[in-house]
Amino acid sequence: MQVKISPVNGCANVFLSLVTLGVYPLMAWLNLRGWPQAVDEQGLVTRAGSKIAWNEFTKITKVITRIGRTSATTTHYELQSPKGKVVVAPYRLEDGDKVFDYVWQRLPEQAKKA
């Protein structure tokens, strides 16, 4: 299954690019390299091209981020393996809950308990 990222609003991209003097697009690109590009029965492939088998994952961490001084939050999951960290952020993915459920069902039990 291909994993598609929902795009950030174009106006927000322009604003962030201007405010950061053009650094934002580079940082966003570097950050997204640790996100999944595809998932299947064998494992997942990151946007950087790393292939990680399901049995290689050692830990999953739920990360809740508070947005500013509001009560609004976002939740993403960090999957740890010897090959690095993979971020699964359902709120930024098309069919994000479906993608996360697919990943969760295939993770080894010891990774879920760690």
Protein topology:
Layout lengths: L9 H10 L3 H10 L3 E4 L3 E4 L4 E3 L5 E8 L6 E9 L2 E5 L7 H11 L2 H5 L1
Q: Specify the biggest β-sheet.
A: 3 strands, antiparallel
Mean pLDDT: 94
CATH architecture of the domain at 36-113: Roll
Number of helices: 4
- Molecular shape: globular
The neighbouring-strand order within the major sheet is 1-2-3
Series of H and E elements:
HHEEEEEEHH
Compute the gyration radius: what is it? 15 Å
If you consult CATH, what is the topology of the domain at 36-113? Answer: PH-domain like
Query: Multimeric state of these chains?
Result: single chain
What ranges have pLDDT less than 50 throughout 5 or more consecutive residues?
A: none
CATH top level label of the domain at 36-113 = Mainly Beta
Question: Residue share in helices?
Answer: 25-40%
- How many beta-strand elements? 6
Proportion of residues in extended strands: 25-35%
Terminal-residue CA separation: 27 Å
- How does the helix and strand content classify structurally? alpha+beta
Report on the architecture of this protein.
This protein is an alpha+beta fold and 114 residues long. It has a domain of 78 residues: PH-domain like. The chain is built from four helices and six strands, in the order H-H-E-E-E-E-E-E-H-H. The strands form two sheets. The chain has a three-stranded antiparallel β-sheet, with helices on one face. The longest helix is centred in the last third of the chain and has 11 residues.
